[in-house]
């Protein structure tokens, strides 16, 4: 995990506003190929048991999302 503090901060914010953040529909948007923050957050979501995760971004910046193959969770790619 390359940005654990940011991933934990994001997860704690979700936890603050939802009694069960693992049951939320989560959308991660942006430059998914180069964002260490997004990849760390996805790793944390796997650890916490989140089940409904969607990823979206400009196609040119979402071609090599390395973390997906290592997650073993259901992820949906959403086109912009």
Structure overview:
- Strands 1-2-3 form a 3-stranded parallel β-sheet, with no helix packed on it.
- The chain is 39% helix and 20% strand.
- Helix 1 (4-17) packs across helix 2 (36-48).
- The N and C termini lie far apart (27 Å).
- The chain has a single domain, classed as Rossmann fold, CATH 3.40.50.
- The radius of gyration is 12 Å and the shape is globular.
- The chain is an alpha/beta fold and 80 residues long.
- It contains 3 helices and 3 strands.
Mean pLDDT: 80
CATH homologous superfamily placement = Aspartate/ornithine carbamoyltransferase
Order of strands, main sheet, comes to 1-2-3
Named at the architecture level, the CATH assignment is 3-Layer(aba) Sandwich
Alpha-carbon Rg, integer = 12 Å
What's the CATH topology name? Rossmann fold
- SSE run: HEHEHE
Number of structural units classed as domains: 1
- SS field, number of helical segments: 3
Q: Could you describe the largest sheet, including whether it forms a barrel? A: 3 strands, parallel
Computed structural class: alpha/beta
Helix content range = 25-40%
The end-to-end span amounts to 27 Å
Globular, elongated, flat, extended or rod-shaped: what is the shape?
Answer: globular
In CATH, what is the class? Alpha Beta
Residues in β-strands, percent: 15-25%
How many distinct beta strands? 3
Low-confidence stretches: none
């Amino acid at each position: 995990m390359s940005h654990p503090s940011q991933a934990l901060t994001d997860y704690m914010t979700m936890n603050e506003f939802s009694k069960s953040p693992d049951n939320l529909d989560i959308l991660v948007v942006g430059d998914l190929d180069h964002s260490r923050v997004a990849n760390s957050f996805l790793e944390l979501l796997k650890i916490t048991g989140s089940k409904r995760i969607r990823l979206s971004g400009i196609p040119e910046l979402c071609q090599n999302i390395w973390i997906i193959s290592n997650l073993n969770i259901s992820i949906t790619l959403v086109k912009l």
